Amino acid sequence: MTKYTNASQRRRSGPKQPEIHAVWRGIGCLLILIVPTISFFLGIASIQLAVDQNWPLPYQLMGYPVMPDLLWKLAGLTPILGFIQSQNNLYAILMVTLVYVVFFSALVSFIYAFVYRYVGPARYGPQDAPPPKVKVKRYTR
User: Fold this and answer.
1) In a designed cystine with 61, which of 51, 66, 91, 117 is the match (CB 3.0 to 4.6 A)?
2) Secondary structure of 88-132 in the HEC alphabet?
3) What is the pLDDT of residues 43-67, one digit of tens each?
4) CA-to-CA distance for 132 and 129, rounded, in angstroms?
């Protein structure tokens, strides 16, 4: 080996990083795509059930959404705004959807952490020092 090496030669000589297992990538897909979709449909079903059972809901969230007049002047947004305004109880559905997204994301994250704790790599590697074994006595005066 020569005395002088350039950066590309040093970079190539390092070990490859292991690839992430497909199961862990699937967890990310679950959080990004499936959880909001399920939450939205559960939000629709929950609001429909609440309306059918005459549960007290905030009247500000019920009904059809209203868009500012300034947005209607943009020709490209007219079909999108028309679709949004045709959705009944949209604000209530979105609020309940947000609650479901937070709940399901927390649940999936908790399950992920639990599984990773038992299936994942060891906490300490071969070069790590073992944790100290110290017994702490209760302080009394």
Assistant:
1) 91
2) CCHHHHHHHHHHHHHHHHHHHHHHHHHHHHHHCCCCCCCCCCCCC
3) 999 999 999 999 999 999 999 998 8
4) 9
Which residues, at least 6 apart from 78, have a Cβ–Cβ distance to it below 8 Å? 72
Q: pLDDT digits over 18-48, tens only?
A: 777 777 777 777 778 889 999 999 999 999 9
**pTM of this structure:** 0.70
* Domains of the chain, residue spans: 21-119
Q: Is 97's pLDDT higher than 90?
A: yes
Tell me which amino acid residue 94 is: L
CA atoms within 13 A on the CB side of 63: 7
For the beta carbon of residue 43, count every other beta carbon within 10 angstroms.
21
